[in-house]
Structure formats: C-alpha cells, structure tokens
Design a protein that fits this description.
Elements (H helix, E strand, L loop, with lengths): L2 H18 L18 E8 L6 H6 L5 E9 L13 H10 L2 E6 L21 H18 L7 E5 L8 H20 L3 E7 H13 L8 E5 L22 E13 L2 E13 L5
Helix pairs in contact: 4-5
Protein name: DUF1906 domain-containing protein
Keywords: Signal
InterPro entries: GH, Rv2525c-like_Glyco_Hydro-like
Length: 273
C-alpha cells in the first residue's frame, strides 16, 4: 500500500512549508528599515491644487520643506492641475523643496468618502491595480521623476468590517505595488490609520508580499509622530513613514495664503531629473 508513504510525504511538505513561510512576528526585508530612494525628514504640506511657483517661493518663509502633489489617478478630486508641470517640479526642487507624489486611484469597494464611491475597485482587483500602477509610473516619468522616486497610492478611509471589502482592496494595492516596484519606483501608501494602515500591518503579519515600502497615515490628533506608527510594529516601515496630523486649515506665509494639511515626514520622496 502507498498510504504510509503518502502520509510521510505530506508531513515532509508541511514541515518544509512551515520552515519557508514568512514569520508573522518579524518584518520581512521588504518592510524592515528605510525604503530605498531619496529620504526627506521634516515638515510637509498637502493641498488639492498644486500652488503656483510664486506661492512656493513665498512659503520658503514657513517651516515646511516638503510638498505633496496629486499627479494622477481616476479618483483625484482636483483633476485639472494647471501649475503642475515638469518645469514646476524642477523649479521647486531648485528652491529646496522635497516632493511627495500622490496618485489617487480606484478606491475600496467600502470607501466611506461619498464622492469616492464612483471610482471603486472593480472585479479584477489585481489587474486593475497593476494597470493603474503602470499609469502612475508613466505619469511620474513624464513629469521628470526618476526611478527610485517614491509614488504614494491614496486609498481613502474604508470599512474593514467585511471580508468582501478587505480582500479586493488588499489585492488592488498589492497589484499596484508590484507594477510600481517592477519599474524601479518605490511604492508608498496613504490611508487612514484605522483602515488602510492597520490593514497593511495585518497583511504584513500574515506574511503577504507586495506590500507598500512606505506608509503615510492620517490621524488628525494634532500630535505629530512619524514613527512608530500606532498599532504597527516599531520594526516595520522604520525610516519610511509619514504622519498627517492635521486636516485642512488656512495658513499664510510670505503674504500668500493656502488651506493645507500638515504632515511630519521621515520617508522617501521624488527624485527629479
């Protein structure tokens, strides 16, 4: 009879799988320590519409040295960005600004933001994620962002209650990351602490690959802390994290006013030609 041999063979396979499976307790090399690329440490702001160069020059009088730009994605609220050009990026780079590129792609099936529900992830979450990841790379390259640049996928707050929502969201994010990393860019991820960020930490503990190399968490508590991220292992995403600690508020610097979110950054940014 072959039954004993079959059982022994199965036991050997199980043992090998146990030895080779990623540990849930220890961050993988993909998420341990700083992500590759140019790293910025300091204060950054984000605002829906890319500011004109004269405003960027005036805001040099603030404590900000980083700026987020919404460079693409079907879920981007300010689709028209008249000031955002390759030349704009070169000019702000020369002024001493670090740039955080944000791509607002398809959103979770259970997204909580009303105006994002029209751009929810479809049936082929992996394929859609890869397609949008390649679009992000194409747009970044057109704007003069070199390989090694971080590109941040923006997934707004969503419900974590249903498996039918969690699975396609994670699959989409992983597909996007795979495509971005495959082209030599650094995939980052922006979301609410209580949904997307904790979702990524749960996936890391479960041993999933193709996760973001940098995390940008929204928690508007007015207490800036880039690392450690609350609820996330202090060994994970170290040197690759951002805290958006305050929501929209009008500020004025150098005679120019804007409504901005505030962020504390210790993470990779764009590398410009």
């Amino acid at each position: 009879m072959r039954t004993p041999k079959l059982i022994i063979g199965l036991l050997v396979l199980v043992a090998l799988a146990t030895l080779t499976a990623p540990s849930a307790a220890v961050p993988t090399a993909e998420h341990r320590g700083a992500a590759r690329g140019k790293v910025f440490r300091g204060w950054a702001f984000d605002t829906c519409l890319t500011p004109p160069l004269r405003t960027m020059s005036a805001w040099r009088k603030s404590n900000f040295r980083g700026v987020a730009v919404y460079f693409g994605g079907r879920g981007r609220f300010c689709q028209k960005q008249p000031h955002l050009t390759a030349n704009w990026l070169r000019q702000v780079d020369r002024m001493g600004w670090s740039v955080l590129p944000v791509y607002v792609g398809s959103q979770s099936p259970c997204v909580l933001v009303p105006h994002k529900k029209k751009v929810r992830i479809g049936r082929d979450a992996w394929g859609q994620g890869r397609k949008e990841g390649l679009d992000a790379v194409r747009r970044a390259n057109a704007y003069g962002m070199k390989r090694g640049s971080a590109l941040y996928l923006d997934i707004e707050n969503y419900s974590m209650a249903k498996w039918q929502c969690r699975k396609p969201t994670l699959t989409f994010v992983r597909g996007w990351n795979r495509a971005v990393r495959g082209q030599g860019y650094v995939p980052g991820f922006y979301s609410s602490l209580s949904s997307g960020i904790w979702h990524m930490e749960r996936a890391r503990k479960a041993g999933f690959g193709d996760l973001p190399q940098a995390l940008w968490y929204a928690r508007w508590n007015g207490k800036p802390r880039a690392h450690p991220i609350p609820g996330v292992s202090p060994q994970a995403w170290r040197g690759a994290s951002i805290h958006q600690y305050r929501g929209p508020k009008k500020e004025k610097h150098g005679g120019h006013a804007m409504e901005v979110d505030r962020n504390l950054v210790n993470a990779p940014v764009a590398v410009l030609r």
